[in-house]
Amino acid sequence: MKKLSVWFREVMGLLFWGFLLVIAISGLFTGSNSVIKNLTSDCVIYTVEDLEKCYNENQYVEVHTMQVLDGGYEHIEDNNGTGKFVIINLDGHGMISLLKESLADSLLTNEIEQVVIKGKIEKFSQSNKTVSDNIEKQYKEAFKDVHTEEELATLFTAIQFNQYDADKGTLIFLLVFYIVAIIWFLSRIIRKIPGVIKPEQYHFNNSVSIREKPDFNKVLEEFDSKKYYFQYKNIYITEHYLIKKRGKRLHVTSKDCIAWIYEKKVTVNFITYSHYIVVHTFDRKRALRITVNEKNKTFIMEALRKECPNATFGYNYSLASLWRKNPERFIKNNE
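and the corresponding structure tokens:
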């Protein structure tokens, strides 16, 4: 892939993931329905004027009242009563509310001086519209001898306050979802940045291990020439390099940098879960691992012995101790 096309592709990817990141952050922090806003604050309501200030669909609020009246209806779900409709008195104005049955019964059977109810403001659902209309008629009928028709017209607040649906578990789930999404988008952006800054290094991951400053053109030239000294599946040995291809990326190691090669097998209860050859370089960057099996391990190891004659082969505790203390000594012929 040419340098300019790589750069253009990485820039477009950077813009795409950046756009998604902005959307995720916006949903988390900004707007009237932001997750953070609804989780961290409750708009406080004492009067209908406060309600007008706080009103926003799905807004979590905190209602203070000294009177709760029976609305006369239950909320039925799957043939079971799951809540009760009541009327909360907001300084003379009535607001339909859906409360948990236990709380509604407690407020209706006991005298209260003041009660605080946390919940969520919502529009009337289609199934509740008839209920709300009937409650409003009953409420106005009860106060028709106390108020004029003009006063009655503004006496009832035609929105719904749901204590029953005020569980913030959904918001907590959304918070976790947004955080995971933001971390994911950031990781994608970070992965795109090197391709924008140095598109010529697009094919190489950060585990390139070469003594001198890498000549990426030389690596690609040897790889693209297909004149391999050895090749098996995604493993390539060229004149100067050991290369493992992972997708479009190349994990490259100079052959004269290879210090230690050994076979490793992970078994549990005599069952092999992983079997690979580990290739360490003297600068101790991330090790290259070559997955093998019983059939191919021998000829792959023989190819490595032939093409990497300066490396030390095999594993024991003495070699492991030496590797931790002085990896340079693993190079048999440094000069």
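(Above: one complete record from the training split.) DSSP finds ten helices and 15 strands in the chain.
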